[in-house]
Amino acid sequence: MGIYTFVAGMAFVVKVPVSICSPGKFGAVTCGGRMNNDVHSARRTLVSASVSSSPAQKLELLSTKSKDIGLPIMVNSCAGKMGKAVIESAVNAGLHIVPVSFGAAEDSGKSVQVGGKEIEVRSQAEREDVLASIFDEYPDLIIVDYTMPDAVNDNAELYCKIGVPFVMGTTGGDRDKLYKTVEDSNVYAVISPQMGKQVVAFLAAMEIMAEQFPGAFSGYSLQVMESHQASKKDASGTAKAVISCFQKLGVKFDMDQIQLIRDPELQTEMVGVPKEHLAGHAFHLYHLESPDQTVTFEFQHNVCGRSIYAEGTVDAVLFLAKKVKSKAEKRIYNMIDVLREGNMR
């Protein structure tokens, strides 16, 4: 009764199964691993729609959209998994990769090969002088930040001090302070904890529902499970955003109730993450249940790999460059703004 599955060339799924008079429990939390294939096979048949482009179409689209762009971008933490993914997508889109990146102290002075480009890693201690010099050389520079949660605010302060527009995909940090820093500096920025375009579209739909139907789920209980690679220490920003929508819909839920799955064994056996994607995935499940346990709703989205985020990041870079060039009055944007622009590749 209302099941939707969207597949767009990646392992991304949104499922909204609705059970009437079926008091089934949230497997990952209460039923000792019922989130595996047995559970999926017991659920209703999914209605699916596949959207993809042929390699030739993609090549033609890239060649027409990205020809002669040459926009310079600097990807910080280029040795990280997201940094590498963004560089590869940016190279394919015809952007110019500045051959310098800020990274960990132990990597300072090293050269990293990414996407056929050799990039020198510089230390945090020298970053202000280095960035000022790079910005002088590349006045159209845009920075992409996929570093660490505890570096978010310091990095943003540096970018704003030098005056460089940036795309911030790193989660965590003091978000209120982050936005105030950017507002006070008048620097252009796209700030979003979620860069996957299709996931953002789902979030936008949730926000519309919360705005138009406040209290629609009053009295319902909510259980949330999210699984990411073991290196991700903080709770998912996407999960928090979805939960915020449910709270507006009348559901009582504290963020510390999110079940974080970081153990590889649990991820494969209980959650169903393919072993080859243990180092890079995002599986989310939101389970709602009525007070009398006769109605349940589930929202699920699963992402394997990082290409969905990397491609969205490149779109955000192109979007921001356009805003800078047009001297747009608005300075701070998110991925919903990027989606609304409608000029994605």
UniProtKB/TrEMBL annotation:
Pfam families membership: DapB_C (PF05173), DapB_N (PF01113)
GO molecular function, one term: 4-hydroxy-tetrahydrodipicolinate reductase
Listed name of the protein: 4-hydroxy-tetrahydrodipicolinate reductase
Organism: Carnegiea gigantea
Dihydrodipicolinate reductase N-terminal domain location: 72-195
Pathway(s) per entry: Amino-acid biosynthesis; L-lysine biosynthesis via DAP pathway; (S)-tetrahydrodipicolinate from L-aspartate: step 4/4
Positions of the Dihydrodipicolinate reductase C-terminal domain: 199-339
Physiological role: Catalyzes the conversion of 4-hydroxy-tetrahydrodipicolinate (HTPA) to tetrahydrodipicolinate.
Class of enzymatic activity (EC top level): oxidoreductase
